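To fix ideas, we close by showing one paired sequence and structure record:
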Amino acid sequence: MKSFAAILALASTAAAFTPQTQSTSSTALNERLSSLDPSIGVTEPLGLYDPLGWLDADKDPASKFATFHANFERRRAVERKHGRIAMVAVVGMLFHNADIEFPGYLSKELGIRFSDVPNGMNGLFSLPLAGLTQIGFAIGVMELAIWPASDYSGDYGTGYGRPFVPNVLEGDELKYKLDLEINQGRAAMMGIMGAMVGEAITGQTLAEQIAANNLGLFSSLFD
């Protein structure tokens, strides 16, 4: 029951990052919206967050706004990619903490099954060197060849996961989906970082913290 309540709490927190409907002119969205458009992710209640003024031409020290604006484009691309990785990490963390693992062996030669890998950060240090090497190699190939970091668009030709219909979004639907991805990615980055910090401080995985009701300020929610 506590686990279910915790999942509901996580869902309600993520809902705070769901983009709210805004009165955006459909005329402005007639042309295909760029994923680097500064308006992406600008939703209530956070609005626009640009403390270094990358979107303000008056703050460009070199008087070359195109070059100055490129700083924003790179960091927006980094934010999007890190958000995607964090969303996958949060889902993986929840599955693993629920003891849902692949069947069979991670390394048959060493006798290590997937179920033998402990939850939390300790799981990383329980992997054999060959496994860690494969992970590092796969990340390098993805980053340099398949989904290169130099591609700031974030569009890697994979579509939107909608079978049997055209994977092309336009207008208000495209704006909503791009807002959703950025904001949920932001929530996931905070979520996975919070889980890692909580584990480092308490020495307990997420599942262990929930079972022991060791949730700090949120413990009273599950009394």
Summary: DSSP finds six helices and two strands in the chain. Helices lie at 2-15, 65-97, 122-125, 129-146, 171-202, 206-211. Confidence is low (pLDDT under 50) at residues 1-17, 20-30. Residues 74 and 152 are 7 Å apart (CA to CA).
